[in-house]
Design a protein that fits this description.
Blueprint lengths: L1 H13 L1 H4 L5 H4 L11 H15 L26 H7 L3 E2 L3 H10 L9 E2 L5 E2 L23 E6 L5 E5 L3 E5 L7 E2 L9 E6 L5 E5 L14 E4 L23 E7 L2 E6 L2 E6 L8 E4 L23 E7 L2 E9 L9 E6 L2 E4 L16 E5 L6 E6 L1 H6 L5 E7 L8 E5 L1 H5 L21 E4 L7 E4 L3 E4 L7 E4 L28 E9 L2 E8 L2 E6 L14 E2 L14 E5 L2 E7 L5 E4 L6 E5 L6 E4 L2 E8 L5 E4 L18 E3 L4 H4 L8 E3 L7 E4 L2 E5 L12 E5 L5 E8 L2 E7 L9 E7 L6 E2 L13 E7 L2 E9 L7 E2 L8 E4 L7 E2 L9 E6 L5 E5 L2 E5 L7 E2 L9 E6 L4 E6 L4 E5 L5
Parallel strand pairs: 3-34
Antiparallel strand pairs: 1-49, 2-58, 4-5, 5-6, 6-7, 8-9, 9-10, 11-12, 12-13, 13-14, 15-16, 16-17, 17-18, 19-20, 20-21, 21-22, 23-24, 24-25, 25-26, 27-28, 28-29, 29-30, 31-32, 32-33, 33-34, 35-36, 36-37, 37-38, 39-40, 40-41, 41-42, 43-44, 44-45, 45-46, 47-48, 48-50, 50-51, 52-53, 53-54, 54-55, ...
Length: 877
């Protein structure tokens, strides 16, 4: 924890000048490319996330703990927090999600149907919400969740694969989307490609190794993507690629190649039956079933990012292999004498392990050029400004080069980027943000995606930034609510992941996918004098509800209800009665949420690491706080664990079920607020209990002043442990429960708690991860739902016929019905019944991270990929 805390403190110091509340608009705009007080929240979050993801590189030198940003880093990076919940203390074996989905499909359904509440436009620049913590006026406009795969044809059809919402089809070049993959067991997108026959290939399992990436169930092919829908029968091969993530699909002759987190695989494109062939795994002993599969570093030992096929010889293939955090096996490989050998002598493109990380290839249509983006583990570990090694071209058209570097991060920074400040420049998240594509008619016209969209029309001699990170800091920006972003043109959302070139009626266009959805412009579009595009169109019209919620809050608002929730990289959404467009009143990542059931505009909104703010008016603001700070309508109330870094990225926050003015927040400590929505300072939290050094809360619940706090620490594979502490909100009676050594409560991530309002000793516990059958690691255990009736002295496994799937949230409904949010939807069990049912008939099979009941008698589900849904509790029988 000390090292992570140091890194966070360092980056906060770097950003301190722009973070100051006294910074005026004039000061913020003093230099082009600077940051205004708007958007600082997201910039902080991105910088902090970058520092977290830098992790433990194998190439940092011992004792390197100075201002260069490194520490003694000798092992592979720790598992990302989101993955930790599903894998620790081991790794997930192939077949886990498929088996869980099969179990789920054999369960009966309850009556009733879910309503998709967020299937409407979400305006990140909504002029109603320009409060101190908002990013409104940044210029991204209408947004949705992360789009990690794109494909487009020459007839106006565009296909978008979302992070965990599946594949959507548009017949109009984007917009008016229809989901075509809800019949699949996995809706997480790794890649999306159209082959030469017009078939759509869908690789599941997002592979950007972020904190919210889900595993997949393999590759699926749709013969008629313009009219058809994906089904389980469309899977290619067997279960070889289950429980993996797939970074890229590439075609070579009659073969398709897959770059996965468990090596490189291939399959025939002529026959889709038969097993996938493992072509290359640099460390096969670490694969599932191998002798080192239970090693804590196993998930990082066979990662591949892309595959390049020589256009003149489909049998000549180059593999980009390696973990973004650094490992000795990182490098480029090609076959020689029947075996895969590391390549050297590639020209400017590095071949040493220290400088080969996440890589993306792109080939020109005429075969004359190959391009590549390379992220450097060493740069990421040691350079505080960027992890980008560069952008490269092979003018021979061969992936073996020779390669020439055509862009450094400094060149990109100076080409019109919004990211020019110390500590956050182009490529700072090259481990996470990459795409690359070439104009089919001009091999020198290239688009590259990092945090921003870059373009060159002369093969890399010069670059422009048609899609800057945001418009903050540019002279054209203004907070004026009568304008979207002053005199600036719309840009795209930050953090680029996917790209496609299509056309309709002979007019070619570019579509990009990022953390805010999909955006389009003409392929050879127009730009202003700074190189910023004047012609972006948001394709996020609300019909692709791919929003990634961590939480949901519901409260009365006039004659209706206000529904709000925290989102991955899209702040906090606000839906009020009569709204036809949702607004964003909170920027960056939105985490957990507390909403007053009696007043839906009383909201506590979490940022990251318990950076909590409170508002009493839904954070409605016209931006006047810029010149008069007293007019801000949000107040920072972060508990002290935020400053020390002793809380999880998305930390638990909850209200007492009997007293809405008593709140519980969990980091290393259990923090209590008794002032409710009147709290104005982080100093007003009371430290009720110290969970212990290295421990951090994963779930909290309170009833009548009795508090339960589940924790983990370490939370990854390196000695994973967990526990539950119980005590009173006034700080008395606290103690650690002695969880039974017989494994009654598994040694896995404890993700949800629910207390019986009639008896605070009656508690339900949701456990994440998979059972021992699928998890290779010590003490994984079985079961996903446990019950105590004596305050935690004894526990009983009440999972019954619950599918073996990660459980995230549990709610005890009136009458005793249990609702459980899982990675595959919502399951319910009525009192006296031993059997589970699927709640309703139409909720997509996606991860439900939080369940809450509303004052209207409905159950609300925050899904991490398909928005917020609600169902009448009375139908769940």
């Amino acid at each position: 924890m000390a090292a992570n805390g140091w890194r966070r403190q360092r980056i906060w110091a770097v950003l301190a000048t722009t973070a100051a509340l006294g910074l005026t608009v004039t000061q913020a705009q003093a230099s082009s490319g600077g940051t205004s007080p708007f958007g600082v929240r997201e910039l902080r979050e991105q910088a902090l996330l970058h520092q977290q993801q830098k992790g433990l590189s194998a190439f940092a030198e011992a004792g390197d703990d100075d201002d260069d940003g490194g520490e003694a880093q000798e092992e592979a990076e720790q598992a990302d927090q989101y993955a930790e919940a599903r894998t620790s203390p081991g790794i997930v074996a192939p077949g886990a999600y498929g088996a869980a989905y099969d179990e789920l499909t054999n369960l009966p359904h309850t009556k009733g149907s879910w309503s998709d509440l967020t299937r409407l436009p979400y305006d990140s620049d909504d002029p109603r919400y320009r409060d101190i913590n908002s990013n409104s006026s940044g210029g991204a406009g209408k947004v949705t969740g992360r789009v990690t795969g794109l494909a487009a044809d020459n007839h106006g059809y565009v296909y978008a694969g979302s992070a965990n919402g599946g594949v959507f089809r548009s017949r109009t070049g984007g917009g008016h989307w229809t989901n075509i993959s809800d019949g699949l067991p996995a809706l997480s997108t790794g890649d999306l490609q159209l082959d030469g026959r017009g078939r759509l290939w869908y690789a599941t399992g997002e592979a950007n190794t972020s904190a919210t990436s889900f595993l997949g169930t393999g590759v699926y092919v749709l013969d008629d993507p313009r009219h058809g829908h994906f089904a389980e029968r469309d899977r290619v091969g067997g279960d070889e690629l289950e429980s993996t993530s797939i970074n890229a699909l590439r075609f070579a002759g009659d073969k398709v190649w897959a770059a996965t987190t468990e090596g490189v695989w291939s399959h025939s494109t002529k026959t889709l039956k038969g097993h996938w062939k493992l072509e290359f795994a640099p460390n096969p002993d670490y694969l599932p079933g191998g002798s080192l599969a239970s090693d804590p570093n196993a998930p990082y030992k066979n990662i591949t990012s892309d595959i390049a096929v020589d256009p003149k010889d489909p049998g000549k293939v180059v593999l980009a292999v390696g973990w973004r955090g650094g490992d000795t096996y990182n490098g480029f490989y090609a076959k020689s004498g029947g075996t895969w050998q590391r390549l050297t002598g590639l020209g400017d493109l590095p071949s040493n392990a220290e400088d080969v990380g996440n890589v993306t290839f792109a080939r020109s249509a005429d075969g004359s050029r190959y391009y590549a983006i390379d992220q450097s583990p060493e740069q990421m570990a040691e350079n505080p400004d960027s992890g980008l090694e560069g952008i490269f071209v092979s003018k021979s058209g061969s992936p073996t080069g020779p390669w020439t570097r055509i862009a450094t991060y400094q060149q990109l920074r100076d080409s019109g980027s919004a990211l020019t400040g110390d500590g956050y420049q182009p490529g700072i998240q090259a481990w996470y943000n990459q795409f690359l594509t070439v104009d089919p008619k001009n091999p020198d016209h290239v688009y590259a995606g990092l945090e921003e969209v870059f373009e060159t029309k002369d093969g890399g001699k010069s670059w422009s930034v048609p899609g800057p990170y945001w418009n903050f800091g540019f002279p054209c920006w203004s907070i004026d609510p009568s304008k979207q972003t002053g005199d600036c043109h719309q840009t795209v959302h930050a953090d680029q992941h996917s790209v496609a070139i299509g056309s309709d009626g002979g007019a070619p266009y570019l579509v990009v996918g990022d953390d805010g959805g999909a955006f389009r412009r003409p392929l050879d579009g127009s730009a202003d004098a700074t190189g910023h595009a004047t012609d972006w169109t948001s394709l996020n019209d609300g019909t692709m509800d791919a929003l990634q919620y961590y939480s949901v809050g519901v409260g009365r608002d006039g004659r209706g209800l206000a529904v709000t929730g925290g989102l991955q990289d899209n702040g906090q959404s606000e839906l009020r009665p009569g709204d036809r467009v949702m607004g964003s009143n909170f920027g960056g990542d939105g985490g957990d949420t507390i909403t007053d059931p009696a007043n839906g505009c009383d909201i506590a909104q979490e940022y990251v690491y318990l950076a909590v703010s409170v508002t009493n008016n839904c954070a409605v603001n016209d931006g006047s706080w810029i010149t008069d700070p007293s007019k801000a309508t949000s107040y920072s109330i972060a508990p002290p664990d935020n400053a020390t870094g002793e809380a999880r990225f998305i930390a638990p926050l909850n209200a007492d079920i009997k007293d809405p003015n008593v709140w519980v927040a969990g980091g290393r400590h259990v923090w209590i607020n008794t002032k409710g929505y009147a709290i104005r300072s982080g100093s007003e939290w009371f430290g009720a209990y110290d969970l212990g050094a290295g421990h951090t809360a994963t779930a909290v619940a309170s009833s009548g002043g009795k508090v339960y706090a589940a924790w983990c620490g370490p939370c990854n594979n390196q000695g994973f442990s967990r526990g539950i502490a119980v005590g009173n909100a006034d700080g008395t009676g606290w103690h650690q429960l002695s969880l039974p050594a017989d494994g009654t409560v598994p040694n896995r991530y404890l993700s949800g708690l629910a207390i019986d309002p009639a008896d605070s000793d009656h508690v339900l516990l949701a456990v994440n991860g998979f059972s021992r059958k699928w998890t290779e690691g010590p003490g994984a255990g079985v079961g996903h739902l446990f019950e105590t009736r004596d305050g935690g002295a004894t526990w009983k496994d009440i999972s019954g016929n619950l599918p073996d799937v990660p459980a995230n949230s549990v709610v005890l409904l009136k009458g005793g019905t249990i609702a459980l949010g899982t990675d595959l939807g919502v399951l319910v069990r009525t009192p006296g019944s031993k059997g589970w049912k699927v709640a309703g008939s139409n909720l997509p099979t996606t991860a439900v991270l939080q369940l809450r009941t509303g004052p209207d008698g409905r159950l609300y589900a925050a899904t991490h990929g398909r928005g917020i849904w609600a169902i009448d509790v009375r139908s769940l029988r």
